[in-house]
Specification:
The protein has 108 residues and is mainly α. It has one domain (3-96). Helix content is 47%, strand content 9%. The protein is built from six helices and two strands; from the N terminus they run H-H-H-E-H-E-H-H. It has helices at residues 3-14, 20-26, 28-31, 52-61, 76-79, 81-94, and strands at 37-41, 65-69. A two-stranded parallel ribbon has the order 1-2. It is globular, with a radius of gyration of 16 Å.
Length: 108
Amino acid sequence: MDPEMGLAVLRLLRSARQPAMLKAGQLLPVAAQRPGLAIIALDDFERASGTVEQHEWAAQKAGAKQARLAGVGHWWPEETAVPVAEALKNFRAELPGPAETPATSSQG
């Protein structure tokens, strides 16, 4: 992370104006058609990404399993990647194998 990267991220986030976020929220139930994991960094609350409760609400609407990670904050890829990697590994291990997964349309 350097100042140039920070500016690039801020520009991207600021481009997600309404109605883009509204539309994303309306599509959350569609996400429930597939397994999902919501990583909720408990030390990243009330920042630009919203509150813990907002993340939990979105995860519930999307039908996602929740990984509530204490000690994990906004910059987890640089600061605390291990708990996130463990949550991803555990989620992946719980997914059904290819033989157990119902066939889906390639258009879905």
